[in-house]
Amino acid sequence: MKKVLVVSMVATVLTTSVVSAVSAAPAVKPAASTAQVQNSTLTINGNSVVVRSIVKNGETLVSLRDVIKAIGAQAEVQRGTTVIKLNGHTVTLQNNAKQLLVDGNKVNLNQPVTIIGGTSYVALRPLVSSVGGTIVKRSGLLEVSTVALLEGAENPRFAGTDKLIVSKSDDNGRTDYLVNTTSGKYDLLLTTDGGSDLIVSPSGNQAAYTNADGAVYVIDLKTKASKLITNDTSIKPELVWSADGSAIYFLQGDKGSVIASLNLADGAIKKLVEDKVDYKENLNVSADGKKFIYTVTTLGKVTSDATNVDEDNVSIDFSANQQQIFSYNNEISKPEAAQLTTSTDDKVFVYSVDGQKAYYVSVPSEDGNASLQSVDSSQEATTVYGVHDVEQAILSGGVLYVLAAQDDSNSVIISIDTVTGKQTKLYTVSSDVSSITVAGSQLAVIENGRVLVQAGGSWRAVTK
Fold this sequence. Notes:
Blueprint: H1 16-23, E1 38-44, E2 47-56, E3 59-63, H2 64-71, E4 74-78, E5 81-86, E6 89-94, E7 99-102, E8 105-108, E9 114-116, E10 119-123, H3 124-130, E11 134-138, E12 141-145, E13 154-158, E14 163-170, E15 173-180, E16 186-192, E17 199-200, E18 206-210, E19 216-220, E20 226-230, E21 238-241, E22 247-252, E23 258-263, E24 269-274, E25 280-285, E26 291-298, E27 301-302, E28 316-317, E29 322-329, E30 338-339, E31 346-351, E32 358-363, E33 371-375, E34 382-385, E35 389-396, E36 399-405, E37 410-417, E38 423-430, E39 433-439, E40 442-447, E41 450-455, E42 458-461
Parallel strand pairs: 1-12
Antiparallel strand pairs: 1-2, 2-3, 3-10, 4-5, 5-6, 6-7, 7-8, 9-10, 11-12, 13-14, 14-15, 15-16, 17-18, 18-19, 19-20, 21-22, 22-23, 23-24, 25-26, 26-29, 27-28, 29-30, 31-32, 32-33, 33-34, 35-36, 36-37, 37-38, 39-40, 40-41, 41-42
């Protein structure tokens, strides 16, 4: 099992004199054949920006002054030489020169820095790359990003449109950030020591979490203000939002034996399943809040004399360790857990749409490919996807998304409609992709520790 083009206006803004200097370069003879200046629209650090441009020998060059202003870089001009500073990089351009000097290293240009009407024009891509930025094309428009990206983030979760929650952990606890997937800009969201992960609400506007004592909070992702819902200190190993966002379901107790609900309006807690069965995990709740899918893990059995407390003489049969999937329906008059699986394979990434049928990744105990399976009360597992070795499955909006290893170099991302069963190959990605996350039409992956989002057929890094 395995894992733009927008320019920031908040960076240091050019002074009027600097902008004027960039625009009014020292008098230089115009090119023999003057190209026609036109306006081009780019997305720079999330903003739509119009920059002047020319086409020279089939290559588009952009106004140096316009781009510097849009990306918020510092710039100085002296005797036809422009020095740009941004993101710790220093870039030197000489009028009519066919190269840039980037942090002391020469970078060749296809077209020289061209002067028209006192304005310098240069190729966009090498200019953006020289200050650590990136360029992708989305919906026919170039998107430029020169924002310094967050480093070392993990566990991405979509939070509404064009937003991701990511986390960084160290010895002092965990810090959560809200990242704009268009610009890469990020804001501090929450710092916690011993708290649970943030679980995003169906609307994407809120997230729930517990602190180290078990108290439940809901944080508004716009204002970043947290509200205490209950100070109940029972351990809550898993939080699950209700479909309408009015309640939170959770497993309760250090062994996860109880399924309970928390009303967000008044903080009332109600026990829904209390069958004294320990080690419940992977809680899924139906839209009506009355049916549940979860797993139960049974532990190994002591096979020696149980009265002998000398652990050197105690033997445990770990072959009894099993994880099985159960359903529980509170709609019936005498509800009880129904076991859906009996197999000894590992069962991971367990999901359910309706609280009756479960989808899970089956990992064989011996060599062999992992596969995506479905099972219901018939206890007969059906292979949903088994073409390649399944590394991860996610359920989002009634659609299953599968990350599977195609070969040693490539993995594939597949979508599977849970109603029709239709399978669609979405993308071929590097085998370095270790995980995916999905929300509606939004898709992100983790590749070599970086979070990348899908943007118009291209992958844009939003962390580094």
